[in-house]
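Appendix C: a fully annotated inverse folding record. The material below is reproduced so that readers can follow the format used throughout the book. The structure is listed first as tokens, followed by the designed sequence.
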């Protein structure tokens, strides 16, 4: 195929390969991201994206947030606040990108920022205590600035190549990069790696987790909070290819918001079922999940689990609290009167669990930016509790480790100003020679400590099976 002209930056390409295969063929994992609808759900998913190799990295550390050129490492800009950084970079993209392009229906990401925003960005939103250990020391935010994307429409089985302008980047210098990406994508099959993981053990012993649940119940009884989302981390040794782990995860647990991203010394493999926020032409959708029952191989028992969740007073109360929290968060940046609950207490089927999901919609008010929306809703309410700030303070006092990527968000922020982010759950993080999986659940007034511990294991069952089949 000839080099793509900037003014015709969305073009179909004759490519016959899965998103995972295309990502593997690029051979630039630390500079590329895979966002994959490995489980298609009507109205929820249907496109996958292979973004990169990137132009730059937008990364947060204790020293601030920096935008650096990928090839030279040159510092291009610096911010004290990560949400300001997102705002400014997206403003530059929107100003420099041609508007009014004709996109195939549903194509949401043609270039912009892609990667993760970690839970601990909450420290830039609220004043929280610093008690938990920061282990491993991953960047609180890592987004790649990508000027080209391979997008796959699952319904039509059609690939598109998309490229955009970035101010200061020479289109003539980028054209060979775009051409090389297409050539690699159309190349031969990539080699499949392997991995091995050691036994996974929780950093919070069962007795301690049950005691923590009881502490949350005491806070609830005292009127401090209505709900808190408590979690614990399981980890073990890891050797081999993290992408091989991702491939096994998606085979066992296909998800509408699967994602894989890799840096020099860590990788994130996610099979999330939960959308955090989607913004399309200033229309916002949030779909918090609260309420879980394990699936059963016996159809009759499985149906009973479905019905038990559907009619559970406890789970409905959990879900409704987070719906109200999200309505409040969205109300800070939404047009007056536009925040609506579109669906309440729907039951979704996933490979290992039934989940209760509600949908909230709103319209972003004039003058509010994507960064304003993120700041107003950060971190995801389904991962904190209510009231939000007090719940986060309690989480910090009880969980021994900072959450890092877990309970944050993964996805894209498009050059048009649109966005789609999933909540980081059902996710494995590989850091050097360790693999980590974090699981949790909402604690409310009628929670039972052992039941809450069991629920975390239900949620982590397929992750454990992917890592250690003998332990599942």
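Designed amino acids, in order:
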């Amino acid at each position: 195929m000839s080099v793509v002209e900037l003014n015709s930056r969305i073009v179909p390409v004759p490519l016959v390969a899965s998103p995972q295969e295309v990502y593997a063929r690029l051979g630039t994992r630390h500079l590329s991201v895979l966002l994959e609808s490995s489980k298609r759900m009507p109205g929820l998913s249907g496109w996958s994206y292979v973004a990169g190799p990137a132009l730059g990295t937008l990364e947060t550390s204790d020293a601030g947030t920096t935008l650096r050129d990928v090839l030279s490492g040159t510092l291009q800009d610096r911010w004290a606040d990560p949400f300001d950084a997102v705002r400014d970079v997206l403003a530059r993209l929107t100003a420099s990108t041609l508007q009014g392009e004709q996109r195939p229906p549903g194509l949401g990401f043609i270039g912009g920022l892609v990667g993760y925003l970690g839970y601990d960005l909450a420290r830039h939103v609220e004043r929280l205590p610093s008690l938990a250990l920061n282990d491993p020391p991953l960047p609180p935010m890592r987004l790649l600035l990508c000027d080209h994307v391979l997008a796959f429409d699952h319904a039509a089985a059609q690939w598109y190549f998309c490229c955009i302008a970035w101010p200061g980047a020479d289109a003539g210098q980028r054209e060979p990069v775009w051409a090389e990406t297409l050539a690699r994508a159309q190349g031969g099959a990539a080699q499949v790696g392997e991995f091995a993981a050691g036994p996974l053990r929780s950093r919070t012993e069962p007795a301690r987790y049950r005691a923590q649940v009881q502490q949350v119940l005491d806070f609830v009884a005292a009127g401090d909070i209505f709900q808190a989302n408590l979690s614990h981390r399981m980890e073990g040794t890891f050797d081999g290819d993290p992408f091989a782990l991702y491939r096994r995860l998606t085979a066992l647990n296909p998800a509408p918001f699967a994602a894989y991203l890799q840096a020099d010394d860590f990788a994130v493999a996610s099979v999330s079922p939960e959308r955090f926020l989607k913004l399309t032409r200033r229309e916002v959708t949030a779909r918090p999940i609260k309420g879980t029952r394990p699936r059963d191989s016996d159809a009759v028992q499985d149906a009973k689990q479905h019905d038990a969740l559907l009619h559970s007073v406890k789970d409905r109360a959990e879900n409704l609290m987070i719906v109200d929290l999200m309505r409040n968060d969205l109300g800070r940046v939404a047009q007056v009167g536009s925040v609506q609950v579109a669906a309440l207490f729907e039951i979704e089927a996933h490979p290992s669990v039934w989940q209760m999901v509600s949908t909230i919609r709103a319209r972003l008010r004039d003058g509010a930016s994507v960064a304003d929306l993120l700041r107003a809703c950060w971190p995801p309410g389904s991962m904190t509790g209510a009231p939000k700030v007090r719940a986060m303070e309690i989480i910090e006092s009880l969980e021994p480790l900072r959450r890092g990527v877990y309970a944050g968000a993964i996805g894209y922020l498009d050059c048009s100003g649109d966005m789609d982010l999933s909540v980081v759950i059902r996710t494995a993080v590989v850091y050097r020679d360790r693999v980590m999986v974090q699981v949790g659940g909402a604690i409310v007034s009628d929670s039972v400590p052992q039941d809450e511990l069991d629920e975390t294991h239900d949620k982590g069952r397929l992750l454990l099976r992917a890592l250690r089949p003998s332990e599942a």
